[in-house]
Amino acid sequence: MNVPALLPSQRQEEIKRLLSDKQVLPIGELAERFGVSEMTVRRDLEVLAESGVVERVFGGARLATRVAREVSHQARLERNREAKLRMATLAATLVHDGDTVALDCSTSALYLAKALRDRPITVVTNGLDALVELSSSRTEVIGVGGTLRLQTHSFVGPIALASLSGLHTDKAFFSVQGLDPQAGLTDSHLAEVDLKRALLRTAREAFALVDASKLGVVALASVVPLDTLDALITDAPSGSLEGLQEQVRVLSVSEGRRNGR
Predict the structure, then answer these.
(1) pLDDT band at 68 (very low <50, low <70, confident <90, very high)
(2) Is the confidence at residue 93, as pLDDT, over 80?
(3) Is the pLDDT of residue 87 over 70?
């Protein structure tokens, strides 16, 4: 098999990309893929290991733990990006000038933060990325402090919960890992679940941003019952929403219309 020759730097970038999809890659497999000797691959891995990008394991390599976390977060940002953009665009129309808006650390809420840039509103969030996104805008932003959770770029824990106590917001927007007619809205990390609940308690209105990939998924812990929401914003087609529309008002961006409860 003829494999196009790559410069060492190009080959090393491709190794990083491949390792983001697989936990471990054997040296022999990399050598065959690039059409080079195993010694050449070992030199590439040495360069990447010295820069802290990969860790050598017996017979191969894996992404360093820090880099793996970053790739995981980046993957979440890119996953179902178009759906999240459409949901954010719709959600932004529900926000009025002068509102105080609570956002969780989800990537869906981050896309909404981008849509709200420079609006004359106040945003309360525990999401590090949303804080950075809004820090250079004219939008007033209140950060929830606490323990930084690297996997989700979020602040959680007792300090975060205490900082939300006594706050009052107009609308809260959040996302979850799972949405099921029986189990409701669920998430797997208990500290994140506690934070989402605390954010929702500050708000007069609550909106869940849930893309179609999460339908039918049940994670570890329930966040809130579906019937406590003011609306569910989703890209799921109406045919997949059986059992949900009876419990919550659905705003669907897949059909460009709103389905009432």
Answers:
(1) low
(2) yes
(3) yes
Residues 119 and 198 in one domain: yes
Full domain range(s) for residue 57: 8-73
**DSSP-assigned letter for residue 144:** -
State both tokens at 205: 């209105």
Domain match, 125 and 237 both? yes
Length of the chain: 261
Both 67 and 88 in a single domain?
no
**69 and 110 share one domain:** no
Contact 247, 227 (CB under 8 A): yes
DSSP-based three-state secondary structure for 105: coil
What does 3-28 look like in DSSP terms, one character per residue?
Answer: -----HHHHHHHHHHHHHHSS-EEHH
Give tens-digit pLDDT for 186-202. 998 899 999 999 999 99
Q: Which of 73, 102, 130 is the endpoint of a domain? A: 73
Q: How confident is the model at residue 71 (pLDDT cuts 50, 70, 90)?
A: low
Q: Measuring CA to CA, which residue among 130, 129, 158, 164 is closest to residue 144?
A: 164
Confidence of residue 217 (pLDDT cuts 50, 70, 90): confident
113 closest CA partner among 144, 92, 94: 92
In terms of domains, do 40 and 107 share one? Answer: no
CA distances from 53 to 13, 72, 246 (A): 10, 14, 49
